[in-house]
Amino acid sequence: MIMSSLPLGAPAPAESPAQAPILAPVLAIESSCDDTACAILAPDGTILAETVLSQSGHIPFGGVVPEIAARAHLAALPGLVCQTLDAAGLPAGALGAVAASTGPGLIGGLIVGAGVGKGLAVALGRPFIAVNHIEAHALTARLPGLVPGGAPFPYLLLLVSGGHCQCIAVEGVGHYRKLGGTIDDAAGEAFDKVAKMLGLGWPGGPAVEALAREGDPAPWPLPRPLHGRPGCDFSFSGLKTAVAQKLAPYDNGALPRAVAAGIAASFQDAVADIVGDRVVHALDMMPDATLLVAAGGVAANSALRARLDALAQARGLPFAAPPLRLCTDNAVMVGWAAIETMRARLALGLPPVDDLDLLPRPRWPLDQMASRFDATAA
Ligand code: KG4
Ligand code: ZN
User: Fold this and answer.
1) CB of 45 sitting under 6 A from ligand 1
2) For 24-66, how does the pLDDT look when each residue is reduced to its tens digit (9 = 90+)?
3) CB 199 within 8 A of CB 255
4) Ligand 1 pocket, residue 162 CB under 6 Å
5) Would you say 319 and 146 are in contact if contact means Cβ atoms under 8 Å apart?
6) How many Cβ atoms sit within 10 Å of the Cβ of residue 23?
7) What is the DSSP-derived secondary structure letter of residue 107?
8) Most buried pick, 31, 280, 290, 326, via CB within 10 A?
9) How many angstroms is it from 53 CA to the middle of ligand 2?
10) Full-prediction pTM beyond 0.85?
11) CA 237 / ligand 2 centre spacing (Å)
């Protein structure tokens, strides 16, 4: 259906077959969780157009429902692709490549995004680039103009979202080392669950942050799981249980606002302490890091940002968090990761990527990405 309504236009300029995809704009799709997003980037990373639709169908359920997400992606994506091309003022034929988040994530959404992306790529006779969603978060800081002076490798990425909580050594395009991650909930998941206990809406992070501003944390001490332990794994489930225990006496529904605000403030302090401590350990594990980068929805939290900024400064390192729209799930990061991948392969003299055969995958560990740059596997 989408193909018949696309203005195909003139084909993109072709120099050598290896260069052709990166001499023309890249259209990128993100649909791995609950945001449907599309973007078009010029070969140098300039954003020509970006669109995002946040799904509201999950609100009554207090969290993302995979089946609802997949159906909403399917309903929205074809129109969103056309809208993004219109916004960029480009016919589809001007594209050099099409990219989509192909994992990790919710499989239904990944199938929709990769399916639409592959269909468009085939119709245009352009390569399809399967992008690892975590890799896309990891490389966002390198978008031209985002970090003053650029974001040269190696740097430490703290990824804190509703689905992920990891410290990653970003050593080069395709070269990532996971230093640690959560052993139970992701940080955003903990914010969302605590918000639910406090009777706030979903997603809970912004609501907890707003309530915490008026609260006194002192009367509500909470634990800091794994704080001070070697390594940089995270754990939030004990903290969540401790919040539930503090709230138990108010089970009858009469939760005074001052209590809710105090607990929200104490919880937020605990998260900042835990994450700050884990990041210090991660930096110890990565002495050559030149920069600390935070990404993911929880990186929007001002208390956490202030903590990360302070600890980076104490080590003489710059701290960067992309603007919120590029911190949360978006398609710009997917397009940029595709461009970085195409450039890195070209620099190594490898043939262009074409991932038409690569199936969407709910799990896609970052350490598998290096094989893309293995000349013997090309
Ligand atoms: O990166 P994101 O938009 O989506 C994925 O989960 O991939 O992150 C969403 C998460 C939610 O759990 C939300 O509650 C949390 O980020 N979040 C925040 C804040 N804004 C969003 N958590 C704490 N403070 C915030 N200001
Ligand atoms: Zn994400």
Assistant:
1) no
2) 999 999 999 888 999 999 999 999 999 999 888 888 887 788 9
3) yes
4) yes
5) no
6) 13
7) H
8) 31
9) 15
10) yes
11) 21
